[in-house]
Amino acid sequence: xxxxxxxxxxxxxxxxxxxxxxxxxxxxxxxxxxxxxxxxxxxxxxxxxxxxxxxxxxxxxxxxxxxxxxxxxxxxxxxxxxxxxxxxxxxxxxxxxxxxxxxxxxxxxxxxxxxxxxxxxxxxxxxxxxxxxxxxxxxxxxxxx
Amino acid sequence: xxxxxxxxxxxxxxxxxxxxxxxxxxxxxxxxxxxxxxxxxxxxxxxxxxxxxxxxxxxxxxxxxxxxxxxxxxxxxxxxxxxxxxxxxxxxxxxxxxxxxxxxxxxxxxxxxxxxxxxxxxxxxxxxxxxxxxxxxxxxxxxxx
Amino acid sequence: xxxxxxxxxxxxxxxxxxxxxxxxxxxxxxxxxxxxxxxxxxxxxxxxxxxxxxxxxxxxxxxxxxxxxxxxxxxxxxxxxxxxxxxxxxxxxxxxxxxxxxxxxxxxxxxxxxxxxxxxxxxxxxxxxxxxxxxxxxxxxxxxx
Amino acid sequence: xxxxxxxxxxxxxxxxxxxxxxxxxxxxxxxxxxxxxxxxxxxxxxxxxxxxxxxxxxxxxxxxxxxxxxxxxxxxxxxxxxxxxxxxxxxxxxxxxxxxxxxxxxxxxxxxxxxxxxxxxxxxxxxxxxxxxxxxxxxxxxxxx
Lengths: 145, 145, 145, 145
Description:
The structure is a homotetramer. Chain A is about 20% helix and about 35% strand. Chain A contains 3 helices and 5 strands. Chain A has helices at about 30-45, 50-55, 130-135; strands at about 10-15, 60-70, 80-90, 90-100, 105-120. A 5-stranded antiparallel beta sheet of chain A has the order 1-3-4-5-2. In chain A, β4 and β5 (about 105-120) form a beta hairpin. The first copy, chain A, is globular.
């Protein structure tokens, strides 16, 4: 389930024919690419371009990915990829995802990906402040009172 | 060059990270997929869904494809795929394509694809009238006078 | 870690250029495809072709996939995909995977995928006996004593 | 038709499930990747690794690609990709391809790709001698007499 206490980005697009397989449905590996584009979109709508992050000398390398397939999607179906920050640490971040049918809101695929910040020499690094602040805003505040 | 005498569809999207290769640019095979999505979009904006065409018992199988690479595109670049009907015959159709940078209009890749209409038993077939009429409107009229 | 008590299939191949991304390494979604080809190979070397399984009226649909990335792989690297049955149930099966460098044996990626047997009408089904027997042979025998 | 007067490399492999589409056949864009792997294999069997070529400061960028689809291929089909040098120039090379069914030899897809040698600053360059000599051996000698 998508959380209700933080920012969730949404990008909507049509399934491409090339993304289907001989079962007539979207191949399960393609959702990993939808997840990736969803986090690209996430940073884009938050005002921070991942391409700039890379150019500044870093990568958010993928350490782990998980997907759960609830229902198939098909060619030309309009779907929405929802993406949020599940957890932000000093050197890494975990994103959560939901792929839903745009019209009905039905959840088709859910997933998570864990990332580690490395520099271009491959060393694990602290996420730079400007990038962490973009992501940090999404972490839920402790309850007031 | 895109023709000026017929309908041209345009769909705009961002290059996905997964579409790049170790040269740091979009892999040349990916444009073949952009072409395909461009012709999906073409029929969509013309009011005819290719998925319906398939469900009616036909396929526009790909007989030939050609791409010419003028300039590379990169991750997160916003590009527009332009698509038009180059030639319509009773049993086949040729589409033309241009992949341009959305902001500058610079042409990055051009191409064509030739298709043959077959039924689900694999027999070459006449393009059904309802589908041909969608495409036929795009063929230039002979000059008046 | 790959188990030592059951059959493990191995298929060896070279990383394709198209499988790399702008980080200069194999894109993380590609390993999901390596996993799939590894289980195709698994059934092939066990004498049962997954294509025949499909033709007999069933699919092993993917319910869940997980990958953990230990080290990147690169273009032209020769790698070996190891695959085994982690768990066999009446209506489903879980495969385990290891992607290793062929020369050094170093483990680059590990993963699992969970599958549910469905018929071509989409109904969850018992795995047919001939197919289950292929997979069952891999389940470890209880210790003698 | 593959030429009979020069070296032709052959690499044999199985079609992966992920390479199929909802028509139940290999997606037409995938052959562009088979072509690429065929030329990787070509240089490999000729004793020159394209990865080394890249590391030496060059790329053979793709200027043009063409494919003609004669017959579909399907999941788990064993196919052979044949590759040869069609034309070698000082700054570029054209490769030819044939994708055939391994068992029957039936030709399924044919194609060509044109490449331009550039350095890592993007400047068109002469193909270095060591690399040209690898390719030059394949160009037919003029008839004696």
